[in-house]
Automatic annotation (TrEMBL):
Transmembrane segments: none annotated. Gene3D superfamilies: 3.10.450.50. It comes from Falsiroseomonas stagni DSM 19981. Residues 1-117 form the SnoaL-like domain. This is SnoaL-like domain-containing protein.
């Protein structure tokens, strides 16, 4: 698959609300996930650990709506823009946020995801 094929398939899964499936299909075994924060989830390595981070996020947030724009492709990378309307379960605070996901692809798999917010 070309970078365009991967980016478009990944983006379409996200647009369809199938974010977990996008990861399952495209993450490399040694994928690295980088968040724009400090702390234990700032850098996560490995498919199982990144899935666990994703599972934690969904368990701790109520998702009202997520829209996905893109992909925006450059070389071996593509970006997606996410607009989210969520409620943090612990605080009950409703949050509207925008996030950019930058994905690096090698050998047909996402080897790094980096989030900007």
């Amino acid at each position: 698959m070309s970078i365009r094929d991967i980016a478009e398939a990944f983006a379409q899964l996200c647009k369809d609300g199938r974010h977990e499936e996008a990861g399952e299909r495209f993450w490399a075994e040694s994928v690295v996930s980088r968040e724009a924060m400090e702390g234990p989830m700032a850098v996560i390595t490995g498919r199982a650990a990144v899935k666990a981070k994703s599972d934690w996020w969904y368990a701790n947030h109520t998702v009202h709506e997520v829209t996905t724009e893109g992909p925006f492709i450059h070389g071996d990378q593509f970006a997606l823009r996410f607009s989210m309307d969520i409620t943090a379960r612990e605080s009950g605070q409703r949050i509207r946020a925008t996030e950019i996901g930058l994905y690096t692809v090698a050998d047909g798999k996402v080897v790094e995801e980096r989030f900007f917010y």
